[in-house]
Design goal:
By secondary structure, this protein is of the alpha/beta class. The protein is built from eight helices and 33 strands.
Amino acid sequence: MKFKDTRIGVFAYNFPHKKTSDFLYRMLTEGIPISVILAADPVQLNIPAPSVRTKVRHQELPHPAEIAARFGIKYVVCPHNSAEVLETIREYDLEIGIIAGARILKQNVIDAFPKGVINFHPGLLPEIRGLDALLWSIEKDVPLAITSHLIDGRVDAGLLIEQNIIPLHPDDTMFDLTERLHEMQLPMIGRAVEKVLAGDIRPLNIAVPYNRKLSSEMEKAVLAKFPDYLARHSSGGQKPVAPVPAPSYRVHPSAVLDEGCVIGNGVNIWHFTHVMKGARIGDGCNIGQNVVVSTGVRIGSNVRIQNNVSVYEGVTLEDNVFLGPSMVFTNVNNPRSAVNRKDQFRPTLVRKGASIGANATIVCGNEIGEYAFVGAGAVVTKPVQPYALVVGNPARQIGWMSELGNRLHFDKENRAVCPESNETYQLSSQGVIKIS
C-alpha cells in the first residue's frame, strides 16, 4: 500500500471505545500514517435508549490517549466542529480525515480536508441511510453491508468508495451481526485510503430519505423478523455488491478526462476541455469549450462554465454557479516563472448561486457570496457579500441582486421585492437577506 507522506487525521472519541481503538490499531498495523488524533469528549445525545440490545458490552478497552502516547502520535482533545479542529487541520496540513468515532461533522470541517473525510457506514447505501442501520436492514429486507464513502454535508451521502456484503450464518445472533459489521470495516480502511488517493470514487445516487431512530415497538417487531431474515440472507461468504452503474454524462471526443476525476450524472463536457485527476464535478453541470478543471477542484451541481475558463487548483464552486466566457481565476498573488509557489496557492470559494460575468477576474483568496453578481470585466480584489452587485476595476459594489438575477430597489423600510419571483428581501447594516 502506498501511503507514504499521506497526512491523515483520525476523528476519535476521548474515552475508551471499541471502534476508536480498533481503527487506530489496524491503521498502525497496516502502516497507514496518522498525523494527529482529533479526540472529542462525550456528548449527551437526545436519542432514546434502545429497547432491544444488539451490542456487546465491552470492558477494559484502552483509552485512545494511551495508544497515542505509546506510538508517539499527536493527540488533540477538542469538539469535532470547533475552531480548534480547523486550526489543527491547517497546522498539520491534513489531506484525509478518517472517522473512527465522531458526531455529524459540519461542512466547513469536511471542506478543510482537500481529499475528503472517509466514513464507514454499517449499511448498504443509499438504501440504508441514517440511524439503526442493522435494524433497518432487517426491516427493509436489504442485505447487511458496509459502505465506505467520502462524506458531505448530507446524512450518509457523498462519494462512494467501496461496498461489501456481510456474510451471515444460520446460527448467527444479533450480537454476531453487530460485531461482524464492526470487524469487516477494519480491512476496508487501507483500501479506502488507497482508492481516495487514486481518485477511484464515484457519486452516490442519494434518492432515498434517511432513516430515523426506530420506536421501541418497531424495534421489537424487527427482532421478530430476524429469524426469517437470517434464513433468506445466510450465505457464509463475503461477496462484493454489484458495481454501481457508471454515471451518465456526455463528453465530446476532443475532451480529455484524466483517470481519477469524478463526473456526475447529466454533465455535458464540450470541445477541447481537460478535466484533471482528482477533480470532482457534480450532477447536471455544463462545461463549455476549451475549459480546464484542475486537480482537486470541486464543482457542485448545476454549474454553468462558459468557454475559455480555467478553474485552477484551490477553487471551489458551489451549486448553481455561473461563470461567464473567458473569466479568470488566479491562485497565487505574486507569480514568477522561476519560482515554484505551488505551496502558496490561496483558495477561492464561489458560493451557491453566484454569477461571474464575461472577462471578469477573481484575485485568489477571496470569497464570492451566495447569489452575488460580478459584472463583466470586473476585477475582484476583496470578498463580495451575498446578493451584492459589483462592477469595475477594482470591483466596487453598486447595488444588490435577487436570487433570480434582478436588480433590487429598496424602499424606505429597506425592503425590496424581486419583480420576477415576488420574494421579499431585507437590507440591514449586515447586508441583504431573503425574508419571504
